[in-house]
Structure of FAD-binding domain-containing protein:
Amino acid sequence: MGSTTDCEVLVVGAGPVGLLTMLFLAKAGINVILVESLPDVDKSPRAMAYGAPAIVELERAGVAAEARSVGMVPSDYDFRLRWITIDNKTLGEFRSEDRIPGSFDAVLCGQYELAKIMKQHVSQYQNASILFNHKLSNIKEVEGALIATVETPEGNKEISAKYLAGCDGGRSTVRKLLNLTYDGFTLPQWLVACNVRYPFRAHGFDRSQFIVHPDHFCLVGKIDPTDLWRVSYAEKPDLTREEVLANVHSKFEAIFPGPKPLPKDAYTVEIVSPYRIHQRSAPSYRKGRAFLAGDAAHACSPFGGMGLTTGICDAGGLADCLIGVLRKGCDDSLLDRYADIRRQKYQDITNNVSYSNTCLLRDTDPEKASEHEFFRMMNSSTEVRREMLKSAYILG
Ligand SMILES: Cc1cc2nc3c(=O)[nH]c(=O)nc-3n(C[C@H](O)[C@H](O)[C@H](O)COP(=O)(O)OP(=O)(O)OC[C@H]3O[C@@H](n4cnc5c(N)ncnc54)[C@H](O)[C@@H]3O)c2cc1C
């Protein structure tokens, strides 16, 4: 074994949840170390839009403006989110005039870019250090502390900490080492996330839209100022990963607006990533001195943008409670409140909303959409749409 390093909080995982937790702690003067198994932040195509309560946390951390400057051009501030049929008929929409007066601007920015901004902010604090190529492999609790074993290119190291924040994603090692289960279910469909260049706007699409369809339900949204778009669609359950990848063109043919048949040279694909969709949560987000946050604690369908939005709210809550206990004389039981409240928020809000959004896209007959409670509310008045938008804040 190599040297022993001490810190107040050890964060595991340099995803946005781990980095944001670390940033809040670093700002409060807490000694924090983050270990990440990869050589740098992960680049896989995932989140791109964040719900209202997450934007409150991003503003509080001082990273929202930068995220907007990386991810958005001025026209992107004109807020419009549509639910459409496969032939681009609007079933319901939120528009700029529905915006809650005084609310923050939207934040649209790829998860990887957001994580890079957080990493850069963290680097300004001497009391915070990020160790890449450091993979957590064991945790043991000793009196008043935890000792983590991490695998590094130079061999194993031990890092001791008063508390540990497990922000190490859906396959969380921390969760497994704490013997916590990940209860729930996995949806049968694949979710295929593609970053693609295609003139969606010229063919009548807006910045963001969901397509309601039993086989081709999907999200199509612009990701960045270079006109890169994300197309995240559902794919048949019985296909192998290879078959999913071989079927990309025929899915684009079904989903994309514009001339049919769709010429293969009409678009450029930058990346295609098939995922499984899970609705799962650990039974507890605390065990002793260790905590779970973000995907390590819970997972949900990405249709609805609830996953990282919830994780970002976890990060704010966990950091606040740790600061309370480590700096403000609060009792350790405050940390139980973190675990209980955030789990309740997942159960009551994230799980329900993300799953029902997915079912809405998959199971609604577009011919009868106007009878669906969701579209009925959405198509009633600005006041009702504002109330719908306001309800998002209870996740925070
Ligand atoms: C296609 C897709 C689109 C999505 N879109 C949205 C969206 O628009 N809005 C939204 O809110 N959510 C969205 N999500 C969900 C969002 O991507 C996740 O909720 C988010 O990645 C969770 O962040 P995290 O920091 O908890 O975990 P992760 O981003 O998974 O980060 C975990 C980190 O921990 C590291 N790690 C793992 N094990 C160890 C170990 N043993 N030691 C050290 N490090 C370790 C990993 O390498 C990784 O860097 C989407 C998901 C998908 C798949």
Q: What stands out?
A: The first helix runs from residue 16 to 27. Residues 12-18, 35-38, 42, 46-50, 111, 135-136, 167-169, 173, 191, 193, 232, 275, 294-296, 302, 305-309, 311 surround flavin-adenine dinucleotide (CB under 6 Å). The chain has a mean pLDDT of 95.
